[in-house]
Specification:
There is one protein chain. The chain has 4 helices and 4 strands, in the order H-H-H-E-E-H-E-E. The protein has 2 domains: 69 residues; 74 residues, General secretion pathway protein M, EpsM (Gyrase A, domain 2), CATH 3.30.1360. It has a 4-stranded antiparallel sheet with strand order 1-2-4-3, with helices on one face. It has 155 residues and is α+β, with helices and mostly antiparallel strands. It is rod-shaped. One of its GO terms (cellular component) is plasma membrane. This is General secretion pathway protein M.
């Protein structure tokens, strides 16, 4: 078989041999590209996506575990709307509009709040057993936020 190939190869002109060598080299590059590099690149991309999903799930589980460690809902000293209104006034958000949505849910709208004090206030509410169900914050033209939030809590 090798002898037949060598005879065939020697029968080609020098130009044909060079063209065949270039063709075989390009074929080898194509096989390496499509057979090795691309599948490895796809596998790495899939691994990164799965890792990102796992990180998100880990955060959700840790958040759920923290909620379980806090224990059952804490009984509030009054209706949720009045507790949130008082907490907003104490935190310096006198412009907060608190609207009750039943016994255990309120919506809060603050047209202008600095980010650090606002999120500290949210953290203090969560420490009291009031949970943020939904939050939308938009940047104002000055360094403040316009915030709409739905809070739930109370026993």
């Amino acid at each position: 078989m090798t002898a037949q190939f060598l005879d065939w190869w020697r029968a080609r002109s020098r130009r044909e041999q060079r063209l065949l060598l270039v063709m075989f080299a390009l074929l080898a590059v194509t096989i390496l590209w499509l057979g090795i590099y691309r599948p490895l690149q796809d596998a790495l991309s899939n691994a990164r996506a799965r890792h990102q999903q796992a990180v998100v799930r880990l955060g959700e589980v840790r958040g759920g575990a923290a909620a379980l460690r806090r224990g059952p809902a804490v009984a509030l000293p009054g209706p949720l709307a009045s507790v949130v209104t008082q907490a907003a006034n104490d935190a310096g958000f006198a412009n907060a509009i608190v609207s009750p949505q039943g016994d255990r849910r309120v919506t809060v709208s603050i047209p202008s709040a600095r980010p650090a004090p606002f999120f500290a206030w949210i953290a203090s509410l969560e420490a009291r057993g009031i949970v943020v169900e939904q939050l939308a914050a938009r940047a104002n033209s000055d360094p403040t936020l316009a915030v709409d939030a739905t809070l739930t809590g109370g026993a």
